[in-house]
Amino acid sequence: MGFxxxxxxxxxxxxxxxIHVTLISLPGLLMASQNLLNxxxxxxxxxxxxxxxxxxxxxxxxxxxxxxxxxKAYIPLDSSGSRLDRCRRYVEPQWQxxxxxxxxxxxxxxxxxxxxxxxxxDTSEFLATTVSEWELVCPLRPLKQMxxxxxxxxxxxxxxxxxxxxxxxxxRSVLIWSYLQLAxxxxxxxxxxxxxxxxxxxxxxxxxxxxxxxxxxxxxxEWIPTRxxxxxxxxxxxxxxxxxxxxxxxxxxxxxxRKLQVAVCAPQFLFFAWSWWYSESARWSVLNGRSEExxxxxxxxxxxxxKPEVIDKLTLEVLHSxxxxxxxxxxxxxxxxxxxxxxxxxxxxxxxxxxxxxxxxAYYGLAxxxxxxxxxxYLMQIIFGVVDIPAKLLALGMLSYLGRRVTxxxxxxxxxxxxxxxxxxPTDLQSVRTTLACLGKAFTSSSFTTVYLYTGELYPTVxxxxxxxxxxxxxxxxxxxxxxxxxxxxx
Length: 491
Fold this sequence. Notes:
Layout: H1 3-9, H2 15-25, H3 28-36, H4 38-41, E1 47-49, H5 67-74, E2 89-90, E3 112-113, E4 119-121, H6 130-134, H7 142-169, H8 171-189, H9 195-221, H10 229-236, H11 238-254, H12 257-265, H13 268-275, H14 282-287, H15 291-304, H16 309-313, H17 316-322, H18 324-330, H19 336-341, H20 343-367, H21 377-386, H22 388-402, H23 404-422, H24 430-458, H25 464-474, H26 480-483, H27 487-490
Antiparallel strand pairs: 1-4, 2-3
Helix pairs in contact: 3-11, 7-8, 7-9, 7-25, 8-9, 8-12, 8-13, 10-22, 10-24, 11-12, 11-21, 20-23, 20-24, 20-25, 22-23, 22-24, 23-24
């Protein structure tokens, strides 16, 4: 007998589990927003050098020109010859270019300079972003990507810190704290007076996101009977899928980075409010000498599931008898590093590191720089969300009939095949390249669903969060894709 048999006695996957899983999964609607937020709050609007403050129109009386035509005298065309250069302007205005028969034969020899007076940003796609507010373009463009890298660094730090704390102090308490931290610091980031302050807030928000995801996964897994984990794990991942489409809708509606920041973080106060309803993992409670708390939680679940007759039968002795093997294992003072010394577990963990790295690199490489596709960024975000639906349904079928290993290998192979094929598609066939990118995104999403489920099931309760964060972080989940946002798609 084991703990899963005990869960069956108090109702199996009953009313309580449905409510429990739903409440923990709902914040996933905005976790996708946190991870992909930089696409919109740091979107790069069309821009060009601002005209000199002292430019005069007195010499233009014989030219019939408007403001748009005037730009030709101040700003050269870029290398494509189809639009104004974003980072250079003429040292002296070239009025001859405004004439109807003006020649552009020697334009390439004209002297140019950087945007000494700043930039003018187009507001048709974004009303305001961090890029337009702090002018993170041209020589400062790397700072735009640095925001996402710093955020992912926070996710890494949060996984290390909160993973260990949750194994020590419990999943529920760390999860509740993470909701509050993200709510306060996420909303505070919308008030950032400077680039540096915004980066600090995003780092701390990333830590909270890590605490929410890791402890949410652990708390769900530890209250679900084994046979329902595949179905529940896959279905709950759809909250992340729908969250991508919600992000696109909010971004299109608001179009201002400060308002969008508040919109995706303020609901965390609501999640914090109802998180007090969660029950601490009974497995963790028993293994940490809190058997009375675990027993109260099981009695509560039995009542909610309509099994009041079980309450009198369920005693501490019965609870300990169902968990005797896990209790015995916990007395050996097992640590994450002790477990990794065993050959079989070490081999599996190394394989998981590679799986996490490859899946994360491909997924975020495709999803973190949507403007490069040449399609509306809002439409592209919705498409990337929609393709996840059939992909995850396919993963559910494969997980149910083929198991974890075959599903994981198949999804990774198909993702690699599609992304690799995209290298050989000519750049002028943009629709084909976008279609292949969407297929690659779909297969990597299936791979993510599988590896989350597999990793959560693999490790014992007493050190589950510590090992989960170790594999999650060391496997490259955090920082690499942020540094190279389009490497998997453009090369």
